[in-house]
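Supplementary Data S3. Sequence and structure tokens for construct A.
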Amino acid sequence: MEVLEDERDGAQPCNGREEMKNGSEEEEELNINAVLRDDDLQAVLTKLKLSGDRDACALVCKRWKAIQDSGRKSMRLRAGRVMLERVAARFSCLTDLDMSENIGRSFYPGWQDDDLGFVSRSFSRLERLNLNNCKGITDKGLAEVGLKLSKLQWLDLTDCKQITDAGVEKVASGCPGLRTLYLSRCKLITDKSLAALSQCRYLETLVFQGCTKIGDDGLLKLSEGCSSLQVLDLTKCGKVGDVGLKSIINACSTSLHTLVLEDCPQVGDDSVIAAGECCQSLQILLLGGCRLLSDHAVDAYFRRHTNLRTLRVEYCLKLTDNGIKSIFANCPSLEVLDVRCCSLLTDRSFETLRLGSNCLKELKISGCNGITSAGILKVAASCPHLYLVEAKYCDHISTSSIIGTALPDGCKVILDSETLVF
């Protein structure tokens, strides 16, 4: 007890202010902002996968917000020059910018060439740029893209109605690393655009839906430089025929996995046979509306090629049971088959299905009056993964005839008046 009193007598008086000062110094030393450099903090923030988590970190302090802003890579913008300038001041490192405009809900007058020029000067690191439905953009704006955005790899110009060959040529010459380009319904472009794009040797995806002025000459030029295409969509390109298609198919034989030729009236057997001979990577082939297509091409294709996953041949009016039988006999891995309005088909189309071993998941036979409920029964017995059958306007398929069919659990059958789920 005496020792305790002696210790108390010898104790120094406590200085509260000094303790607070020491505590604040220790707290400052332990403050994360004093420990982490900007690069370190940026590296930590980049590990956050959820945008909500990144936004929460931006609320910690001004420094964290500035670093988070500087490291942001993607953004979606709507029309407005004031907002565009504010974004450019805060997010200088963007690599992905979405400026697409909603159909019917766009801000008037929408993005203009001056806006696109400002973007090209402010975001030199852009790799992806979405201008879908930006009807105010012309070749003048695209010239700025080609001049300033040399790192661009992905560009969507769908429904940019004023774009011509001159704009595409500027992009092709200024963006040599371009890999994906959407030009759907840019109806002013011609074969000159395809010739210009031949210098973009890394192109992997080209979509030209509704570009009615491109044809075989353009595809011949394109094939001279592009040999890495994986996706080619020429839907409703009425001037495209077998000559041009064969050239691009041969040039991209090792890479092409998706070929879309729907509503191309000049495409016939030669293109499909060529694809079967050399495109072993092809998994999706869409030929709906190619009315010159016959059983000969289908048979020749599937005798060589057995890896296809999706085939659409709706409105191919020359196809008969023999062509469809060849498909099932040689390609059990097929998952989606669309033969709507192929009026010559009957239940015999399904004779070569292998009981319980086919991978078919989706079958569309609307308008095929020769197919009956017996054909559906054959498909159900052979395809355990089947989940959709569309059978509208089939006179010999009714609700009463389908109800007793042993379809897989969860399979949906769409008829004229109702949808059945098993």
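Construct B, processed identically:
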Amino acid sequence: MDKRLELLQRLLDANGGKMNGKFLIAVAVVAVIVVVGFIAFRLILVEMILSLRDSR
């Protein structure tokens, strides 16, 4: 977790310390895509396991 904060601090320093709206939106969009992808992956995995169990 500490490395993530350090990376974020470096990004902020490179950006002049200002959090512009486009940067925040980009970070939020990436976070949402990652979360949705993870949830979809879990659902597909559970569906596959259940279908394999039913086929026996």
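Residues 23 and 55 are 48 Å apart (CA to CA). The chain has a mean pLDDT of 83.
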